[in-house]
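[Discussion] Sanity-checking designs against the backbone

I'm trying to build intuition for which residues belong where. Below is a structure token string of 137 positions. I'd appreciate it if someone posts a full sequence so I can compare it with mine line by line.
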């Protein structure tokens, strides 16, 4: 595991937050991952009507996108969640906790939206990551 990111769970005067850091920074190559939804490699929806199944697929798609840049979830400094219902957030967090180091969570934001680009989609997540300069450890 690399330690090229600095996490500040709660800066002075800011209430601690469960499951995310208020501030994360690092230096290196910046990577932006477009919002990923629960689509398979052919564009079909995975887990229609099932927020947990969709969240797992979204994180798998994020993993594949990060890998394409030579990165992994340890390199993620920010996640942004778009959900059609905030009631889906526990399922999203459970899927997230399967792939991130929960002792050093990324910064994050969650937004409830009226709809995503296809009506059967419940969750979309975008990510920002930073790869360290030089060889990985």
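Best answer:
Here's mine. Compare freely.
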């Amino acid at each position: 595991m690399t330690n090229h990111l600095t996490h500040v769970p709660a800066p002075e005067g800011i209430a601690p937050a469960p499951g995310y850091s208020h501030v994360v920074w690092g230096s290196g190559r910046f990577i932006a991952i477009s919002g990923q939804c629960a689509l398979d490699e052919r564009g079909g929806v995975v887990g229609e009507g099932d927020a947990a199944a969709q969240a797992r697929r979204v994180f798998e798609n994020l993993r594949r996108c990060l890998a394409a840049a030579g990165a992994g979830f340890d390199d993620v400094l920010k996640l942004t969640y778009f959900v059609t219902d905030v009631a889906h957030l526990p399922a999203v967090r459970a899927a997230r906790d399967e792939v991130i180091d929960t002792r050093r969570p990324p910064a994050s934001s969650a937004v409830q939206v009226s709809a995503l680009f296809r009506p059967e989609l419940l969750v979309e997540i975008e990510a920002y990551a930073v790869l360290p300069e030089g060889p990985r450890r």
